[in-house]
């Protein structure tokens, strides 16, 4: 009986230990599976966070570009407004010059009539008085003619400035329309490719087309061959590009000179080497000093 009891207790102990071992093993297996699942979810969440960060950076870059375009559009609008104001000033000056020319023409006509009257009255005057009166009238007529020629020169300058400003306004309006068209396009969601990094071109001032180029000369074209280094062939090329006057060459900026030089084919480098801009400025100053 004692032996049977001891065997029963032994089997109970073995069964208890076996149950505890199986329970511990099942608990350990479940914990291991839960840890594996948590690590996978953590890795997936980390990848999603990285993708969201890349998308945010791409959207921020696109927003910055849109802000830059808006700034350029505002600057162009200011330039258009300034050019239009200058055009209005040039128009007023041109109208004033027209009015003054008309007045001087009327004055010249009146002097001609007066000279005719004096000529008819000359028969009743002595030779000395006649010659004195005619000399006075001729001097007055010469002064009026000089004033008329001066105003005609001012009028030609106003026409040239007005045409230049008009072409500048047309070009600026085209640039404004182009920028507006770019801003109207919807902001596309950028595709994030972590393995590709966009590269921007190096910043620099590109050659700029001169704003003073003309489709036809403003009045009589200047003799560009008076600039050292410009021959008949180069003058023809410059005329085809829209350069007819000394003022256009004298007003070239560095970037505009680079653009014009790039259009001269086999004659590139002549603008700087021969000093066209300085020569043109000298010719313009000489013309102003002589009152041409």
Written overview of the protein:
Helix 1 (2-121) packs antiparallel against helix 2 (127-184). With 292 residues, the protein is mainly α. The protein has a domain at 222-292: DNA polymerase, domain 1 (Orthogonal Bundle). The chain is 76% helix and 0% strand. Residues 186-203 have low confidence and may be disordered. The protein has 7 helices and no strands. The protein is rod-shaped, with a radius of gyration of 44 Å.
In a nutshell, what does this entry contain?
With 292 residues, the protein is mainly alpha-helical.
Order of helices and strands: HHHHHHH
Strand content: under 5%
Q: How many distinct beta strands?
A: 0
User: Mean pLDDT, as a whole number?
Assistant: 78
**Main β-sheet: number of strands, strand sense, barrel status?**
none
How much is the radius of gyration in Å?
A: 44 Å
- What's the N-to-C terminus distance? 147 Å
Shape designation: rod-shaped
Tell me the structural class.
Answer: mainly alpha
CATH architecture of the domain at 222-292: Orthogonal Bundle
Reported by name, the CATH topology of the domain at 222-292 is DNA polymerase, domain 1
Q: What is the CATH class name of the domain at 222-292?
A: Mainly Alpha
């Amino acid at each position: 009986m004692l032996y049977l009891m001891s065997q029963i207790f032994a089997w109970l102990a073995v069964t208890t230990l076996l149950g505890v071992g199986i329970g511990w093993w099942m608990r350990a297996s479940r914990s291991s599976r839960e840890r594996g699942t948590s690590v996978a979810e953590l890795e997936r969440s980390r990848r999603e966070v990285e993708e969201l960060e890349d998308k945010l950076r791409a959207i921020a870059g696109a927003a910055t570009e849109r802000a830059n375009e808006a700034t350029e559009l505002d600057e162009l609008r200011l330039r258009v407004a300034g050019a239009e104001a200058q055009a209005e000033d040039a128009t007023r000056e041109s109208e004033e010059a027209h009015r003054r020319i008309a007045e001087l023409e009327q004055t010249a006509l009146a002097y001609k009539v007066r000279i005719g009257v004096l000529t008819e009255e000359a028969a009743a005057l002595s030779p000395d008085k006649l010659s004195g009166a005619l000399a006075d009238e001729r001097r007055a007529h010469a002064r009026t003619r000089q004033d008329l020629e001066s105003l005609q020169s001012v009028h030609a300058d106003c026409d040239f400035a007005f045409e230049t400003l008009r072409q500048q306004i047309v070009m600026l309006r085209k640039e404004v329309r182009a920028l507006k068209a770019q801003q109207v396009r919807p902001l596309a969601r950028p595709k994030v490719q972590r393995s590709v990094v966009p590269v921007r071109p190096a910043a620099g001032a590109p050659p700029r087309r001169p704003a003073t180029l003309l489709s036809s000369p403003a009045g009589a074209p200047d003799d560009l061959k008076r600039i050292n280094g410009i021959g008949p062939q180069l003058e023809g090329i410059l005329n085809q590009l829209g350069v007819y006057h000394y003022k256009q060459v004298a007003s070239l900026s560095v970037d505009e000179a680079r653009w014009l030089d790039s259009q001269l084919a086999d004659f590139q480098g002549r603008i700087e080497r021969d000093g066209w801009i300085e020569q043109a400025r000298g010719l313009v100053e000489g013309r102003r000093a002589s009152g041409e």
